[in-house]
Amino acid sequence: MVLNSDWQPxxxxxxxLSETLPILQxxxxxxxxxxxxxxxxxxxxxPVGMVELALPDASLSPDTYAPQIYAQLHEQINHRLRQNxxxxxxxxxxxxxxxxxxxxxxxxxxAFLQNHPPFxxxxxxxxxxxDQLHVCLASLVNQAYPNYEIVLVDNAPSNDETQQLVERHxxxxxxxxxIREDRPGAAWARNRAIQEARGEILAYTDDxxxxxxxWVTAIAQAFARDEKIGGVSGITxxxxxxxxxxxxxxxxxxxxxxxEPIVHNIHDQPLDSSLYPFNSMNFAACVNMAYRTxxxxxxxxxxxxxGPGSLAKSGEDTELYLRVVMKxxxxxxxxxxxxxHFHRRDYxxxxxxxxxxxxxxxxxxxxxxxxxxxxxLHVVKLLPRIxxxxxxxxxxxxxxxxxxxxxxxxxxEMRGWLYGPIAxxxxxxxxxxxxxxxxxxxxxAPVSA
Length: 449
Description:
The chain is an alpha/beta fold. The chain contains 13 helices and 14 strands.
C-alpha cells in the first residue's frame, strides 16, 4: 500500500564527532541510491541527537554537512562537552572535535571495566527466525564488556533450525547457552531466562535487533550509580528506514525518549499528581530493558497470560515494569545503551501491530488493577487523560505523529483496547492449561548445567 507517493527511503548513518568526519555516501552496499540520510550524531560513543540531511549528489562531504549538524545540535554538543570537563566549540570542523584532555565519560567507563564489573546475563527469546537471530547474535558476542553471558531461549520451536544455527556458528562461544523452552509464549521464555540466569543483572533484547558494542557496559554502569535502581532501559533506534510503514511505526510507538539520562521513581512522581507511571511505559519494552535478577525473582517474573504468543498479544514487559515501579524501585533511562530494531517493512503488518498493541495495553491494565485493586478509582479517573495521550490530542503525541498519520491505525488501536480485557481473561485460562501440561517454572530452581 502506497500512503504517500512522495515518500523516500532514508539511509541511516552515524557520525562520531570526536573523530575525523566521514564522507557520507548516498548509496548502500547493494548500490541503492538514497536522496536523504538520517544521521545519528555521537560524541565519545554516546548519542547526542539525530539529524536529517539531503543527499543531492553521490556523496556528501564533511565540509558541507558539518555546519548543518552544528546548527541543529550545537547546544546539545556543548552541553555534552561541559559534562565531560571540556571546552565548548563555536563551529564543528571536518576534522572532528579534538580535545587535549580525556573526556570524563571515557575515563569513567575505563575505571568501571577495570574494577570487577558485575556479571550480566543477556536473554533473547526467539522462535523460528534464524536469519534475524544470526544478525543479532553476531552483535551480541562482540560486546566490549568482559563479564557476561548470553541465554538464548528457543521458545516452542517448530523445528531444530535455531539449535543448528547456534551449534554451527556459535558453538565455540563458551558464554552463549542454548535453552529450549516448550511452554509457548514470550513471557514463558523470558521467565525461563530468569531461572537460568547466572548474572546479578538480567538484560533483555529481541532477536530482530543489532546491539551496540557498548550496550552491556552502559546498562551495567547505570545500575552501579545507585543501588536503588531496579531497572535500566536504553535508546532503541530503527535499524533501517526503507518503507513508509517503518517510519509510521516510529511515529506510532517510538522507543526513544531522548538523548539525556533520566532516573525516575514513584516517590518523585506520585500517582496522584500525573499519569505516571502509565505515561512512561516506553521505558519498559523488552527490546532494550534490564532488571536486577533478584527483583525479577522477587516479583515472580513475567505474567505468561501477557506477551507475544498469548491471546493478549504483548504487554508482559510493561506490566512487569509497573510492578517494579510500584514496588518503589527507581528506573534509569540510559541513552548510551543503544539497540537498533528492524521494524517490519509492510503496512499490513503495521495494521495488525497497532491492533495488537491496543489489546496489550488494556490487557496489561486489567492485570494491574486485578492485583492492585486499591488503584481502580485512580485509573478510572485517569482514563480521559490516558485516551488523550494515546490518540493524539495531547501535545506530546501531536509532536510525535505527523498530520498525515493514518487515522485507521488509531482506530485499530482503539479496537484493540476494547478487546484487551477479554483477551487477558481468556489468556489466563490458556495459562492454566499450559501449567497442567508442563508445570510451572520455578524461578529459583538450579540453572542448567
